[in-house]
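TA notes, week 10

Several of you asked for a full example with nothing omitted. So below is the full record: structure tokens for the whole chain, then the designed sequence directly under it. When grading your own attempts, check the secondary structure regions first.
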């Protein structure tokens, strides 16, 4: 049962991230090939990075070509319907928030199964959640959302930590997945709605050499 839930979440996250990539393509007024490229890179990038680091070969989309077909279909459909939202950037941010929370949990789950190390699982959860979006923004020449002032990476980290901690405490995985996902989404959503962020470094004059 849990394997089914995890698979559904991974498919949903894959499609969500593909939409965010395609919406960036729409902002850049790309052709349908550009939509397909950004959709695939965003949807598959995080999972590919995770699988390669963990030594899981072949990577998920090579083993299951239906993953890449799904991202292509979603991206191409977005080409025809991206004009519907009045503010595509806001939709992109919220789709990205859902994908971030989903992939943080799914990535941590896959890594936990592969290594059984909670630290590695959390790190791979964060990488799965963020890497596809980073590639999307670099290729689309957007300011990387990972550098936004609002809470972003922290949301993925919190979601992965909550999931892994609950699993290690013996909480049923279905509950751990739900709470991990909700934690990541609520934190990222709070950042989007209220502009929440942690204190940032403020530059200040350095001290002259030899003086206290």
């Amino acid at each position: 049962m849990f394997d089914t839930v995890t698979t559904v979440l991974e498919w949903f996250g894959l499609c969500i991230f593909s939409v965010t990539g395609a919406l960036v393509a729409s902002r850049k007024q790309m052709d349908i090939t550009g939509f397909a490229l950004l959709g695939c890179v965003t949807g598959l990038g995080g999972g590919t990075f995770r699988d390669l680091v963990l030594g899981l070969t072949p990577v998920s989309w090579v083993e299951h070509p239906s993953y890449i077909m799904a991202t292509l279909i979603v991206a191409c459909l977005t080409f025809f319907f991206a004009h519907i939202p009045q503010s595509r950037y806001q939709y992109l941010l919220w789709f990205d928030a859902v994908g971030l929370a989903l992939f943080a949990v799914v990535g941590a789950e896959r890594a936990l199964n592969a290594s059984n190390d909670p630290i590695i699982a959390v790190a791979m959860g964060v990488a799965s959640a963020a890497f596809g979006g980073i590639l999307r923004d670099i290729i689309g020449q957007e300011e990387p959302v990972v550098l936004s002032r609002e809470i972003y990476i922290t949301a993925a980290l919190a979601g992965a930590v909550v999931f892994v901690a609950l699993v290690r405490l013996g909480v049923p995985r279905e509950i751990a997945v739900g709470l991990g996902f909700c934690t990541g989404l609520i934190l990222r959503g709070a950042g989007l709605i209220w502009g929440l962020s942690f204190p940032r470094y403020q530059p200040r004059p350095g001290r002259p050499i030899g003086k206290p």
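The chain has a mean pLDDT of 89. Use that as a sanity check on your answer.
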